[in-house]
Amino acid sequence: MSLSTFSLVKPKQQPILRFLKQLLIAAIAAIAFWTILLMLFEEKFIFFPSSYPGGYYDEAGTVPGIEDCSFITEDGVKIHAWFVKSDSAVATLLMAHGNAGNLSHRLPIIKAMRDSGFNVLMFDYRGYGKSEGSPTEDGVYADGRAAFDYLLQRQGVDSSSIILFGTSLGGAVAVDIATHRKAAGLILESTFSTAKDVARVAYPFLPAQFILRSRFDSEAKIRTIRIPILFLHGDQDGVIPIALGRKLYSAANEPKTFHTIVGADHNDTFWVGGEEYMRTIRSFALSLTSKK
Questions:
Q1: 67 in the same domain as 20
Q2: Which of 22, 25, 60, 169 is the most buried (most CB within 10 A)?
């Protein structure tokens, strides 16, 4: 009997090998599908805007003295914002929010900052809330610069009293503003080093970091910034791991401070941090204004 009459694979193993082959093909097809989808609709994976009237605009009256305002960006887009003035303000916070919702979802934070002695300007990126246009990386950077320039036009506000405050995606916007405009300080909350680093975390089975057009390279930009920086990050952040916040902190110049909010996830730093959270921010602001 020749060797050719014998199968080199046991009969029971053949169905298993066929199943594994089919599983591998399915996995490759799924990876290819999601990779192509990400390439075609990249902005949809980054920006999650809520347009007006979605949100809590009816509750704006809970913040005393809140003002509707708008300004035009360098590329002609009309941006909507809210400004709140605090009596005897410690500083003025220019707040850039995260990638989802709109400014009306941040009303409790705006009110808390106002009550703690800050003027606050929070703006919506293009495509968010009442702002015109559609969000892109370069677009949200332009929105941030226009917001800063608008603040300078307001009576009693100058660059020496403006603190940039960016949360999550807004951290990348705040860092970019700081590379183009002179502010007193920078607060970065729950933010990241680069878009590629986030992609590795969010899509570990996709080659997302190799195909992303968006850079959001705060790590490179922050090396050029020479103003005091306060980092805030929850140690239970399941969206932007605290390791990415620390990576950005490592790239930053002195003076800098990293404050860990114990027990906080990505979207509850304000609530979990409580009084200590507010004290940390106010102390940072006072350290800047006392040097004036």
A1: no
A2: 169
